[in-house]
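note to self: the first set is below, dont mix up w the second
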Amino acid sequence: MRIQKFIAECGVCSRRAAEELVLAGKIFVNGKEAAVGMDVDPENDRIMYSGKRLYIKACDKQYFIFYKPRGVITSMKRESEDEKRPIVADFIKKIKGRVYPVGRLDRDSEGILILTDDGEAALRMTHPRYHINKTYRVTVRGNVSENQLAKLRDGVLLDDGMTKPAIVAIQSQTSEKGENEDSDDIYTDENIRIVKTALHITISEGRNRQIRRMCEAVGLEVMLLKRIAVGEILLGRLKPGEYRPMTEAEKAKLMKSLSLPYTSPEKKGKTLSETKHGKPVHRYGREKSVNERRFLKQVKKMK
C-alpha cells in the first residue's frame, strides 16, 4: 500500500494532505523518513507521525454534514498558538475519532462542508475526474444582465485558465423605489431599482475562490456566498455551527457518485442532528427553499 493512502486510511487526513506531511518530513517508516509513493506493509512496518504509531481504522468510517459559518477557517489545526480566529475543529469537539473537512470554503463564505475519516472518499470528492458538483447560493449587488448570465454559463476566463460551463439561474431579486431625475414623482414604476440578486450556481471544479473570481470577472459584486449542496448531499436545515451524521440514504448516494461500494447496516434508524452544543435536534432532510430544491432537480437532469 502506498504511504499516502495508508495515512488517509488511518483517518489522519486526506491523501493529498498526507503527501504534504510526507514531503514535510513528518512521517517515518521503521525509523527512517518516508518518501511520497513508497510502499508500506501496514502489518509489519512501523509508521510514525508526531511520535505516535499509525494504525488503519478497523471501525466503520464516519461521515458528517457541517454548516460552516462565515468567519471560520476551514482547518482542524491552528497555524500558531497565538491564532485566535475560529476553526472548524472548535465546533466538532463532541465527534469521537478524527474527522477532517473535505475541500475548503474560504473564510468569508458559509455553507456545507463534509467531514469524514474516509481518505479514499475524500480524495474522490476533490478529484476532477469524478466531477462532483457543488451548488452555491450567491447574492450579488444590483441586477444581473442576460449577458453576464451567458458568460457564467459558457465559462469565464480567469488568471489560471478558462472555467468549465456552469449551471446558473436567478433565484430571487430584491428591489426598491428611488428618485427619478426625470420625474417629480419618486414612486413611478419606471424608477424601481434592483438592489440585489440571488443566484444559484453549480460548478464541478474546485479552484481557489472560484465563484467569487467568476463573478468578479463578469462585473458582479458578491455580497453573500453560501454552499448549499455537494453532489446530492444537501445542507438542509442546519444552522451555522451545527453538524449531523449523514443518513444511510445520503451515504449510499455519496458512495454511488464516487463509484465506491457501500453496504448499509442491517439496523436502520433515524439519525439525529447535533448542534454545536451537542444537543439533538430534528432538523434535517429538506431544503428550506422550494426554489433550491427545484434548482437541484434541474442540475441532476442536466448532468
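second set (the one i keep forgetting abt)
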Amino acid sequence: MISFADVHKTYQAKSGSVDALNGISFDIEDGEFVFIIGKSGSGKSTLMKCITCEETPDEGEVYIDDFCISDMPRALVPVLRRHIGMVYQDFRLIESKTVSENIAFAGEIVGIPKKNLNQIVQFMLNLVGLKDKADAYPKELSGGEQQRIAIARAMVNNPKLMVADEPTGNLDPETSENIMAILQEINRGGTTVVVCTHDSNLVDRMKKRVIQIEDGLIVRDKRDSMYNEEVTEAPKPIENTSDVGFAFGDDPNFSHDSDYADSFDDEEYAAKETPLSDFFFGDSPVAPAPVVSATPAPVEETSVEEILEEESIDSIIELTDEPEEDETAEDVTEETTSEITEEETRDEQESQEETAAADVVAEEKSEEITEDNWIEEISLEESDIDLDIQEDDE
C-alpha cells in the first residue's frame, strides 16, 4: 500500500539546514493499522505530509499502490487525495456550514452524485454517533464531537487509506478512546489506517504496529508493540576483512614466536609465582583447593587378559564359603616351612663344627711333625715291623 525508499527531506532555517528525514525506508501493507510515534521535531509530521503530498522529498521515492507520488505533477494531487482520508488535530471544519453540510461538501469535491450524497452523510453521522447533531454548527460542538465530524468527513469517499495526524491531541482520555474505537472500526472494514500520535496509553492498549522515529531515522519498527519498549540498535554491517593486514592459519610474515608482538609481559607474570590455588572457576570454595601435581602418576599398562584373569580370581575368592580353612591351611604351611628351615640350619651348623674340629686336629699333627722327629717316627715304625715278622716266624 505505502512504500518509502531512502527518503530525505531537509528544511532551510535561519540557524542552518535541518534534516527532518534522513533516509528512511519502510512498507505498510493493505489493511494495516500503524502508529507513527516520536518526540516533537523527530520528523513524524513530515513523514505524514509526504504521504498526502503536502511535502515533496528531496531524495528518495514514496509509493502508494505502486504509484510514485514523490515526483507527481501538482495537477494530479487532488486526484490522489480523493483516495485518501485525512484527519487533522485542529479539525479544519468550515465554521459557516452545519455538520451535515461539512460532510456533504467533502462528497461534492470528490464528485459523489447528490441523490446518493444525503444517504452517505446520514450513514457517516450514524457511524460517529452524532446523528442528532446534523443541523448544529461546529462552534456548538465539543472538541471530541468536532473530531468525530472530521472523521466522518474523511470517510465520505470510502478511501482505501486513512491518515490521522494527532487525532486525539486536544481531547480528554475518554473522548480519545472513542475516537480510536471509531478508527479501529474503520480499519476492520478494510481501510489502511496510519496514526501519528503522542498518546502512549492508547498505543499500549491497542498494541498495533509501531514505527518510532528519532532525528529523522527509524529506530523501531515492530508489530504488536507498545509505546515505551526498549530500542535496540540495528546491527552494524560487517566490514570488509579482505585487506585487514593479517592472515588466518600459517602466516609467512611470522617465522618465530618473537615476531608476534603483544602487550603481555611474560617475565613479570613468571616473577609473581601465583599458585594455582588462588584461581577458581565459579563460586570460590570456603577452603582453598589442594594443589595437584602437574606430573601424572605412572600408569601400569595392563592387558585385557590380565584384567579378566584378576576379575575371575576376585570373583572366585568372593564365592568361597570357607575362608577359615584357607587361613588354617596357610598357617600349617607356614609352620611346616619354618620347621624344615630350622632342621636344615642345625645340620649345617653341626657339619661346620665337625669340619672345624678336623682342621684343628690336622693343624696339631702338622705342628708335631718337624725335621727333628720325623726320622724317629720312621725308625719306630721299622722296629714295629721287625717285631711283627719275628712273631710270625715263631
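remember for set 2: The chain has eleven helices and ten strands.
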